[in-house]
Amino acid sequence: MNANDPPDNDAQPPQKPPRRVRYSGTHPKNYKQKYKEHNMEAYPELKAHLSAKGKTPASTHIPVMTKEVLDCLKPMPSDVVIDCTLGYGGHASEFIERIGSAGKLIALDVDASELQRTKERLNNPANVSFHRSNFAGIANALSKENLDGFDIIFADLGISSMQIDDPDRGMSYKNNGPLDMRMDDRIKQTAADLLNTLSEKKLAMTLWELSDETDYEHIARQIVTQRTDKPITQTDHLVQIVFDAKGINQKAWRQRRRTEKKRSLHPAALTFQAMRMLVNDEIGCLKELLRVAPYCLKPGGRIGIISFHSGEDRIVKHSFRDGVRNGIYKTTAKEVIVPDNKEINANPRSASAKFRWAVK
Ligand SMILES: C[S@@+](CC[C@H](N)C(=O)[O-])C[C@H]1O[C@@H](n2cnc3c(N)ncnc32)[C@H](O)[C@@H]1O
């Protein structure tokens, strides 16, 4: 603009950067206060610092066993790949790089907000289609894209670090928040709805079948008893119920834990896992994916699944082994593939991951 030009009335004043959330002490502790971690591009040195401590920066996700996935599924230029669980896009970026511009990646996720964020982070590449869709419906994705089959079907089951760390999603026992637990906000019933209405028998069965929680009967009874006094709506309340059911004092448990060499599982971890799997029908969706997957693969196509729970891994193993026995698959992984110690140290969240693959 020339100095003599009239002022431009449409010009906006320069935007001030938003003020960071105030926190007491020297370090932000809760999820929302970690403003640097929510903007990792601006603080690249923080990534290395957190990774040396085995921590995942807030609102990011570290992909698991990437090398093993690529070695076994062998994405090649011009392949058509479906990533059934886009998440932060860690595995997807590796696929995109290898299939090149002649290839095509179909990226699914049920979580609308994370899907949109990842689409923007990946710069919405021309050879990627993003679908807010459950992987139980991969056959629909195939027909919507007018494709005759996939070269690779990949799924990295469960939830992302972004989902588990955000207290507003209510998926973790670590920070208090509403007991929502839905990955897909189109699902009608939240964890709170189920905790306040299911019968004691159904709650006990859920805890036993979805997480092998040995105190399933005590916890189910405690849920039903406590909800008559006050509806269960917050994660802290569910944590207290589990401690009450197990007869453990929270303060004493925290003190004992500080001295443990190897960290034991949080007493409420299995209850949270089971409720999350129930809310999102994770086993039902996995079974449907495994049922339709062979019909959506091209001959010679590869399927790979990472699971984080022994029950899910068993379902994947049997599906692939039965598939080979019935002539649906040519071959499958002989042994389950797990992360090495180096990966577990760098990313402790990978510790329970199990990877299996099969070829049609
Ligand atoms: C473990 S994360 C995937 C992380 C991803 N591989 C990465 O590298 O960032 C799992 C993702 O799958 C999504 N998800 C879980 N179950 C799903 C389903 N049945 N259909 C579609 N997406 C699902 C979750 O919303 C979450 O974003």
List keywords for this structure.
alpha/beta, Rossmann fold, DNA polymerase, domain 1, 2 domains, 7-stranded mixed sheet, 15 helices, 42% helix, globular, disordered N terminus, binds S-adenosylmethionine
Description of the structure:
This protein has 15 helices and seven strands. Helix 3 (90-99) links the parallel strand 1 and strand 2. By secondary structure, the chain is an alpha/beta fold. It is globular, with a radius of gyration of 23 Å. The protein folds into two domains: 66-161 and 283-359, Rossmann fold (3-Layer(aba) Sandwich), CATH 3.40.50; 188-279, DNA polymerase, domain 1 (Orthogonal Bundle), CATH 1.10.150. Bound molecules: S-adenosylmethionine. The site of S-adenosylmethionine (SAM) has 22 residues, from helix 3 and strand 2.
In short:
It is built from 15 helices and seven strands.
Taken from the alpha-carbon principal axes, the silhouette is globular
- According to CATH, the homologous superfamily of the largest domain is Vaccinia Virus protein VP39
The CATH topology of the largest domain corresponds to Rossmann fold
CATH class designation of the largest domain: Alpha Beta
Query: Helix tally?
Result: 15
Element layout with pairings:
Elements lengths: L43 H9 L13 H8 L6 E4 L6 H10 L4 E6 L2 H10 L6 E5 L5 H7 L5 E7 L4 H5 L25 H7 L2 H12 L4 H14 L5 H12 L3 H9 L10 H11 L2 H15 E11 L2 H16 L5 E2 L8 H6 L7 E6 L1
Parallel strand pairs: 1-2, 1-4, 2-3, 4-5
Antiparallel strand pairs: 5-7, 6-7
The protein binds S-adenosylmethionine (SAM).
